[in-house]
Design a protein that fits this description.
about 40% helix; six-stranded mixed beta sheet
Length: about 300
């Protein structure tokens, strides 16, 4: 299988005169990828295009090597999808719903029945599988959605806000389940979320949408290794050091006894300059270290 599971080039999608996607370019690779963006950035719209449920107005899109506009039904047999909404039939047993969805994906009834039971056990609802969905908690309904997305053994799983409505304990359980599905089952996952900490917990890579285009994409490992200035902690007021650094063309943001210094490269030169200025000013240095770029930094920058 190719290392790219979703490739988009110049993808456009509009509703009337309102363009939601304005020429989106991205590659989604193997593993777990977080799809981030503020409300209205086009995350759910992009997932709809990937599923072949909506036609695009322009550009090229390939999912698992297939154009969703040309082979939507065939492609959807290889995809699992857990939607954001909770509109599940309340009078239907969980096992019956999951079996029905598995049949829609092409499994014979007997195989679908067995897969439904297995999937519900995998998500922690084995003993609850014959309960009507309407009697279940929000956390359990989220797990039902995960089970129906997994039952037919998809190659790619699309999860749209999978922790919506969950309390902190339920959220941690759901994220642990997503990690297990991606790591142990080897299923590639595209996870749409607006919560940065969720993406940092479970994802290998990230795609950030803003104003209908990609503001940033890349691996979280590369993101964490990128330097973003220096962090300085003093045992006294850091404002004299900030003023001295400004004379050297550096930018320093004061937060209590901490300084975040940018504008001096490379790191070694910044370290030497800060140490010399601290000594000249007679200040006490507690900590001096590189400040690594965070996902929040990138998200804020991409959203501007």
């Amino acid at each position: 299988m190719s290392d790219v599971v979703i490739r988009a080039r110049g993808v456009q999608k509009s509703y009337g005169s309102n363009y939601v996607l304005r020429g989106l370019d991205c590659d989604v690779g193997r593993g777990i990828t977080g799809l981030l963006g503020p409300n209205g950035a086009g995350k759910s719209t992009f997932m709809g295009l990937v599923l072949g449920l909506r036609p695009r107005q322009g550009g090229a899109l390939h999912v698992l090597g297939t154009d969703p506009d040309q082979s939507g039904a065939e492609l959807r047999s290889r995809l699992g999808y857990a939607p954001e909404h909770h509109d599940l039939p309340g009078d239907v047993q969980a096992a019956d719903l999951v079996r029905h969805i598995a049949q829609l994906h092409g499994l014979p009834r007997r195989a679908a029945t067995g897969r439904a039971s297995d999937a519900l056990w995998q998500v922690g609802l084995g003993e609850e599988r014959f309960r009507p969905i309407g009697t279940m908690s929000t956390g359990q309904r989220q797990r039902v959605k995960m089970a129906q997305a997994l039952a037919h053994d998809p190659d790619l799983l699309l999860l749209d806000e999978p922790t919506d409505g969950l309390d902190p304990v339920q959220r941690d359980d759901m994220l642990a389940l997503i990690r297990r599905v991606g790591r142990e089952f080897g299923i590639d996952i595209l996870l749409s979320s607006h919560l940065l900490e969720e993406v940092e917990q479970v994802c290998d890579s990230v795609v950030i949408l803003t104003n209908g285009v990609v503001g940033h994409s890349g691996t979280l490992r590369d993101l964490g290794s990128a330097a973003a200035g220096m962090r300085v902690e003093l045992d006294s007021d850091p404002r004299p050091l900030a003023a001295a650094l400004a004379d050297w063309g550096a930018e320093a943001v004061v937060d209590g006894h901490m300084l975040t210094v940018t504008g001096v490269t490379p790191e070694a030169a910044a370290s030497d300059l800060i140490r010399d200025l601290v000594a000249d000013l007679g200040l006490g240095l507690r900590r001096l270290e590189p400040r690594r770029t965070t996902l929040e930094d990138v998200f804020i920058e991409a959203s501007r």
